TrEMBL record, chain A:
Transmembrane segments: 36-55, 76-99
Name of the protein described by the UniProt record: TIGR03943 family protein
The DUF1980 domain, residue ranges: 138-231
Organism: Streptomyces pluripotens
InterPro entries: DUF1980, DUF1980_C
Length: 237, 343
């Protein structure tokens, strides 16, 4: 492609990055901490596009018409992520990946104090590690409230899942809780739920990597909208 | 929820640019690229709903998400590396490297390898910077040692490794030593066996007696368009493999020591995870031995699909086809050796 087209592609790519970084769209794909870099690189791309256009104009006006080396055709591939970001904007990873990836639950250092409240608000990772590794003792028999999305395995048993993310969606890994008790009559995979319930004994094993999946006995569940950051980023802090 | 924007602000739509100088006649036969670009964008906007329909299956959706994620995550680091390499090309005189590096390549290699620790970020930034070093007259052996060590031994990556393996601090040391060892070994190997005619020196648009500013932005534009295209190719390959790999093959591999090392080495190449995040993925592969996890951590930042595509773009295909397998073999061997001694 010639330099005018390159300037246009650079400009659009920079604009798409700036757009994703300012609207929160980027949280579907990368960790929150990447935002400053994303905005900075978007700005650099826009400046590079303007500089290219400016030097190109000067080159055409000046008397030296040097032959232009057209860039290799591989540059056209840059249109693909651009179109995917602007037109498709695919959703954050959901139940399809969660069922196909083993739980990433790891033995924690220790358990912090339970937050106040009845029921106690906990993240999926927090509840899962207290239940799977501490036999739920640190929960003191209190009712808990956990938010995540639904995933159904091949046998149809329901899990509450949150994807934990370290860098970008390519390395996102699920943490799963097996649900028992009072479930809604219709279970739609990928539907976000706020579940209230109590610790239930026993640990299931993830069919994919044999990792531990604790149980939660549900007393009530209500649908909630997708959170601002669909991924769990506690490991990044 | 979707986002639509104007089809193409900034794309000039004045039809084919009229032929000027250069090669008369040839320009007329070729479609002008701004026109093709505008048509592509317009068609994509018009065909929005069929395209979305095609991508609606869960498998395609997760493919697209991973593809966009890898690209969006790598682009900032690529831009950072490209800016750095343009700065090296414009503002650092070649004499600086001649003074900073030992004259003998055998000594320059470890110095460059250790210098990799100062380049923050991940592997996407190191390829353009290594290209700029070669252009500035740094001996290729040293530039390649830098290319391999930078993504693996910088403080950000080592800190991430320490966070991911809280109970095995020896993992951080093992990763540092194994990566440095393999990077230097590859540098010396190139010095012994490498031939300069395999290495296509990174070509650049002629610096037409231009000002510093023009040379700088020319280099930035060229590198982003070029390396960016290869980055997209690598991201597509990585997303495809993530989508088609059956979930249970790893479990069968974890059984035997030899097979588990090979499986994680291949996985590191296929997944193409950023080196700042691969430690967390390695930590989640609970059923594998520490040595196999170390292999995953050493191989990933040095050679994966995305890197292979970018190396081929920067240094030429003849180089990448020889360099990649050698890197892979040495990285596996070096990591196993370190793992046996330390872990």
């Amino acid at each position: 492609m010639n330099r005018q087209a390159q300037a246009a592609v650079l400009f659009l790519l920079g604009a798409a990055l700036l757009h994703a970084g300012t609207t929160g769209l980027y949280l579907r794909y990368v960790k929150a901490g990447l935002r400053p870099l994303l905005l900075a690189s978007g700005a650099v791309l826009v400046v590079a596009a303007l500089a290219t256009a400016w030097y190109e104009r000067r080159r055409h006006r000046s008397s030296r018409h040097t032959a232009e080396h057209p860039e290799p055709r591989i540059s056209w591939l840059l249109l693909l992520p651009l179109l995917a970001l602007i037109l498709v904007a695919p959703p954050a990873l959901g139940s399809y990946s969660a069922v196909r990836t083993g739980t990433a639950l790891q033995r924690p250092y220790g358990y912090g104090l339970l937050p106040a409240g009845d029921p106690v608000p906990l993240s999926v990772v927090d509840y899962a590690s207290r239940a799977a590794y501490g036999h739920g003792r640190s929960l003191h028999g209190r009712a808990v409230r956990v938010t995540g999305f639904l995933a159904l395995d091949h046998a149809g048993s329901p899990y509450l899942v949150r994807m934990a993310l370290n860098c970008c969606a390519a390395d996102a890994q699920p943490v799963k809780i097996a649900l028992t008790g009072e479930l809604p009559p219709v279970l739609r995979p990928d539907a976000w739920l706020e579940v209230t319930g109590r610790y239930a004994t026993g640990v299931a094993h993830d069919p994919v990597n044999n990792g531990p999946i604790p149980y939660l006995k549900v007393t009530s569940a209500r649908p909630v909208p997708v959170p601002h950051d669909p991924y769990d980023e506690t490991w990044n802090n | 929820m979707t986002v639509t924007e104007d089809a193409s602000p900034g794309a000039s739509t004045h039809g084919p640019a009229h032929p000027r100088g250069g090669r008369p006649g040839k320009e007329d036969r070729r479609l002008s690229s701004p026109l093709v670009l505008t048509l592509t964008l317009l068609l994509a906007v018009l065909a929005q709903s069929p395209i979305r329909g095609l991508l609606a299956t869960p498998r395609m959706q997760s493919w697209t998400t991973v593809f966009v994620a890898v690209t969006v995550q790598a682009l900032p680091f690529l831009v950072l590396g490209v800016l750095l390499s343009a700065a090296i090309a414009v503002f650092v005189p070649p004499s600086f490297f001649a003074r900073a590096l030992p004259r003998r390549p055998a000594l320059a290699v470890p110095v460059a390898g250790v210098a990799g620790a100062v380049l923050p970020g991940c592997e996407c930034a190191s390829v353009p910077v290594a290209g700029a070093l070669v252009r500035r007259g740094v001996t290729p052996a040293a530039a390649l040692a830098f290319l391999l060590s930078a993504p693996a031994i910088n403080p950000i990556v080592l800190t991430a490794t320490a966070v991911a393996f809280p109970r095995n601090p020896e993992m951080v040391l093992a990763r540092f030593l194994a990566s440095l060892l393999v990077a230097c070994a590859m540098g010396w190997l190139w010095h012994r066996l490498g031939r300069t005619d395999w290495l296509r020196p990174p070509a650049h648009g002629a610096h037409e007696g231009a000002t510093r500013g023009e040379t700088f932005w020319n280099s930035v534009r060229h590198d982003i368009m070029h390396a960016g295209g290869f980055l997209v190719l690598g991201a597509m390959a990585a997303a495809t493999l993530k989508a088609v790999t059956p979930p249970d093959w790893l479990r069968t591999a974890a059984g035997s020591p030899l097979f588990s090392v090979l499986a994680l080495a291949v996985l590191a190449v296929l997944l193409s995870i950023c080196s700042e995040a691969d430690a967390f993925v390695a930590a989640s592969l609970t059923q594998f031995s520490p040595t196999a996890k170390l292999v995953f951590l050493v191989v990933g930042p040095m050679i994966d699909l995305k890197l292979f595509a970018m190396q081929a773009g920067t240094f030429g295909r003849a180089f990448a086809l020889r360099f990649a397998p050698a890197t892979f073999v040495l990285a596996v061997a070096g990591a196993v050796l370190t793992g046996v001694v330390l872990l």
